[in-house]
Design brief:
Elements lengths: L1 H54 L6 H9 L3 H6 L1
């Protein structure tokens, strides 16, 4: 009886661990897709942003705009 309970308990823990792993993997894949989509959108709109900055006299090279959109330390990059 105790062995059966231990076996059932071990199966439950394995199933729970597997479900947790699958959930975290799905979450990671969705986050990666959204991050890639954000990067594509930034790259797609960066020429428009560069043109807008140029029109208002705030010239900035495309490389700096893309880097500022892709990395969290925007202020440090833009000051260079």
């Amino acid at each position: 009886m105790a062995c059966e309970k231990a076996g059932i308990r071990a199966g439950y823990i394995r199933r729970k661990t597997l479900n947790t792993y699958i959930y975290k993997t799905k979450k990671y894949i969705i986050a990666q897709i959204l991050w890639d989509l954000a990067g594509v959108i930034c790259l797609a709109f960066s020429p428009l942003l560069q043109q807008w900055l140029f029109d208002y006299g705030l010239q900035s090279p495309l490389k700096k705009i893309v880097m500022a959109n892709m990395f969290p330390y925007r202020e440090m990059i833009l000051q260079r």
